[in-house]
Amino acid sequence: MRNSLFGAGPRSCGSEVKRAILIALALLGALTGCTRQAQIAARGAQVMSFDLEQTMHVFQRLDDGGRQTVTAKDRSNEKQIALIQAHLQMEAEKFRRGDFSDPAGIHGDEMPGLAELKSGFGEIDIEYKALPDGGEIRYATANRSLVMALHHWFRAQVSDHGRHAMDH
Known about the structure:
The chain is α+β, with helices and mostly antiparallel strands and 168 residues long. The protein has one domain (44-167). The protein has 5 helices and 5 strands; from the N terminus they run αββαααββαβ. It has a 5-stranded mixed beta sheet with strand order 3-4-2-1-5, covered by helices on one side. Helix 1 packs antiparallel against helix 3 (101-107) and helix 4 (114-120) packs across helix 5 (144-161). The relative contact order is 0.17.
């Protein structure tokens, strides 16, 4: 006779409860990720003047650092392209001074790699470049620890931005 909540007899009830708990935890983890990405998008809208829905972030890890590119999905959207370019140019200038307050404001002070970038900014060459459909910031350093910090920072951004960002 099946009289338990999960339709199983008393012997299998424990395994069904464990299974249900695991499913609930998996769903909670998925929802937490979605919630974090929604929080990141909301905070990002306060810092980034361009529209995340109309743009794409690409983070490319390189042997000597990395390249962060933001482009408009519609190459003819001059407004978004201008907003991307102005934002990235400003961020590159701030990063060269060791000011990573905008990423910290969006992603949190505990963002992987951020503390190392703040303390080692003087050893990183940071260059902005306008692109026809957006812009990029190139980060280069001979310091292997800072290369790893950049890679951790890039991975965290890809995770946090979800569908608005990708690894290359």
